[in-house]
Amino acid sequence: MRGPKLKILLCAPRGFCAGVERAIQIVEEALERFGAPVYVRHEIVHNRYVVESLKAKGAVFVEELEEIDDPTRPVVFSAHGVPQRVRQSAAARNTFFLDATCPLVSKVHKEAILHHRRGHDIVLVGHAGHPEVEGTMGQLPAGAITLVETVEDARSFQPREPDNLAWITQTTLSVDDTAEIVAVLKQRFPAIIGPHKDDICYATTNRQEAVKQVAPTVERMIVVGSPNSSNSQRLREVAERAGCPRAVLIQGAAEINWADFSGIQRLGVTAGASAPELLVEEVLDAFAARYDISVDLVRTAEESVVFSLPKRLREAAA
Fold first, then answer.
1. Which end of the chain is less packed: N or C, by CB atoms within 10 Å?
2. C-alpha span between 167 and 200 (Å, rounded)
3. Which of 102, 129, 144 is the last residue of a domain?
4. Does 193 reside within a domain?
5. In this model, does residue 195 exceed pLDDT 90?
6. What is the pLDDT of residue 23?
7. Do 232 and 184 share a domain, yes or no?
8. What is the average per-residue pLDDT within 77-98?
9. Do 246 and 274 fall within a single domain?
10. What pLDDT, on the 0 to 100 scale, is given for residue 233?
11. Range of the domain at 86
12. Which residues are catalytic?
């Protein structure tokens, strides 16, 4: 006997972005070329399934280089980027490292350094404690960058030189939240300089746009992703703001609370940029076991971005 009918609207784009695919490939190729263990500073991307899969292949995850027993082994820096002190520590230890920082995060680092050279005070819109924010702020001396997290922060911010400001952002923020914060900064400081191209990455923007299209038409939204994934948390927030009565963030099918979905007829499903498609398929299979499902793909953008591997890894391969 088949269960009640359920229409599932599957967002596209969803899941892995080019920066995540590149970071995972760097770890896998390092393991293939140099053997295990390959050390990784911080989770390579914020997804438990990905981290556990790489651990099973011989990757060892640490939070600081000082935790590494064998300094002769390769180290990979995570996709979120690292402060300059980490690179300096690696150089002092003569460590062979591979930088898996997403090129779009590296772009923000370069913007920060350029603004600093030009003497600007820098405002970073982002979330305190996130490794990407720590990496960006860590490109410059302490005090060179001021973190602004909310509209209230933007309203109360008192710069040293109000006419000599520049702003940059974390790449995985809510597009709408960031626009509100930046609007306040521009209203208060008309001379403030912004990026030539938005710092929020294409993948974050595309996934949020797909959710905005689906969310008003469904009764529930599932975001597949990890709780420490900024872009996944933003997808859940965007879904509810766009009109979905309830959106939930789960790491996989095992976390589905079926009571949350009782009596619904339309469900939206998406995945954060660090969530593998396999986990989405498991969620769909779990619903197919309980409901008579039909799945419609809702695509709002095509993605063809590919990032090359680090030169050091290409040279090692040669």
1. N
2. 12
3. 102
4. no
5. yes
6. 98
7. no
8. 95
9. yes
10. 97
11. 18-102
12. 132
Spatial distance between the Cα atoms of 123 and 168, rounded to a whole number of angstroms: 6
pLDDT tens across 116-174, in order? 999 999 999 999 999 999 999 999 999 999 999 999 999 999 999 999 999 999 999 99
pLDDT band (50, 70, 90) for residue 198: confident
Identify whether 91 is part of a domain.
Answer: yes
Predicted TM-score of the model (pTM): 0.95
> Which domain CATH number covers 242?
3.40.1010.20
Please give the Cα distance from 282 to 121 (Å, whole number): 47
How many domains does one find in the chain? 3
Please tell me the least confidently modeled range out of 65-74, 185-194, 284-293: 65-74
Nearest to 135 by CA among 235, 42, 62: 42
Is residue 197 a part of any domain in this protein?
no
pLDDT reading at 1 higher than 70: no
Asked whether the predicted pLDDT for residue 110 surpasses 70, the reply is: yes
Mapping DSSP onto H, E and C, the string for the chain reads: CCCCEEEEEEEECCCCCHHHHHHHHHHHHHHHHHCCCEEEECCCCCCHHHHHHHHHHCEEEECCHHHCCCCCCCEEECCCCCCHHHHHHHHHCCCCEEECCCHHHHHHHHHHHHHHHCCCEEEEECCCCCHHHHHHHCCCCCCCEEEECCHHHHHHCCCCCCCCEEEEECCCCCHHHHHHHHHHHHHHCCCCECCCCCCCCHHHHHHHHHHHHHHHHCCEEEEECCCCCHHHHHHHHHHHHCCCCCEEEECCHHHCCHHHHCCCCEEEEEECCCCCHHHHHHHHHHHHCCCEEEEEEEECCCCCCCCCCCHHHHHHHC
Same domain? For 9 and 25 the reply is: no
Which residues, listed in sequence order, are joined to residue 99 by a DSSP beta bridge? 77
Choosing from 139, 158, 188, the residue where a domain stops is: 188
19: its two tokens = 């920066």
What's the CATH number where 86 sits? 3.40.50.11270
Output the pLDDT for position 318.
64
* Torsions phi, psi for 169 (to 5 deg): -140, 160
